[in-house]
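Quick log. Single chain, no ligands specified.
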Amino acid sequence: MKQICAAMVALFLGSMTVHASIWHVNNLTGVDSHSGMNADEAVKTFAKVMTLVSPGDTVSIANTGIPYYETLHLRGVLGTAAKPLIIEGNQAVISGLRLLSFNDWQQEGNGFRLTMKKLPSHVSPSLFVNGEMVKMVADRESCKPGESVWLGDGFFYWPASSELDASASYKASLGDSGVGGLNCRYILIRNLVCEHHCNDGFNFHGNVHSVRLENITSRFNGDDGFSIHEEGEVKVDGGLFHNNRYGIEDVNASRSSYNGVTIRDNETGVHFSGGMHSLIGCELVNNRKQVILNKGGGVGYLTPDADSFLYRGNCIIQDSCITGGQIGVLAADTVQLQMYSCMISGFAESGLVLGNNVSLFLTGTVIDGEGHTELILNATDVYEDANWYVGGRIKIKDQPASFQDLLTLHPESRSQTGAIDRQDCDVKQQPFKQGRNRIHLGPGIF
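-> predicted structure:
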């Protein structure tokens, strides 16, 4: 009898269990008055679906081949440690492009002016005509036929034909961000693309933590591909950030971890300004400035002390490849930098540049200047061992120095100079300590 009663109680409790729901969004067939409970009843907008979710639920964004022209806002605590909210993007695209009216253009000088609301100085919208991005230049004085200028409160456009085509489609990247997180926690976002925003592709502010992203893409955004502010904590596993002003820019006291991401063809690849950050197994390719590390700006509600250790900056770069650009890694102010088993090569100016107050731990790393300076060492708090400076081109306190000068400063170092063997992604035949006879480097190096 007791067993029967126990079974009935278990059945009753099981019937009361609330199962996680899957909510469907479809910008082609969805209607916001639908239930959202299945693909045939999908809602149309992110704004609607976010009113439906509970911890443990999944939002499935249909990839219809048509971009979503709205921001996915993630505000407040949307999941729990046991029941995270899942955003499944299915490789759908969130676009910041917005339609412009032909009638709003006014002729001005040798071109046309469209005036709109003034935007913050750090954003940089672009103009598109018939789906093609118009070349953007710095000012009106340098503008030529077929080019455009963002003026802070609108566009100046000089058509190639000198006439504005009434039949053309005019759009601009005026949407602020693709994904905007504020004080959100316990969220998994995967397989989502953000593009053509005047600000950031992915943007997080405030008390954000336990937010994870997988296999994301952020491209052609006016400021950052990905950005974390204040005390936010975010982890990214797998991603591509390209053709933004900054591929990644995390500031203040933020904490971030990037694993297996590719960052290429941005003005600056990575900018960490304060906080604690890591790049593990990453590839940085042909960003004009690859990695910039410096002290962060203070946040009033955290501490008004701009010299607080929160903002000093701490970065780990491991098993990563940095190729091309002007400078490989530039560390300034009070930054603490650890580098393990990395490759810096193909740069036009310098591989690794360290400011006076930087602390460095560098090991198992190859810096191949191909005729340019591998290391500029102004810092004194330095431990470097088992590294390979291929050309031996070194500056200490901004003055040319020999490799022997470096060894005199660091007599415990086992670092080397000379040619390297580029077979099998290894640097071989190196007489390093602890029985190592090779350095194995990060992905796709040679």
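The mean pLDDT is 88.
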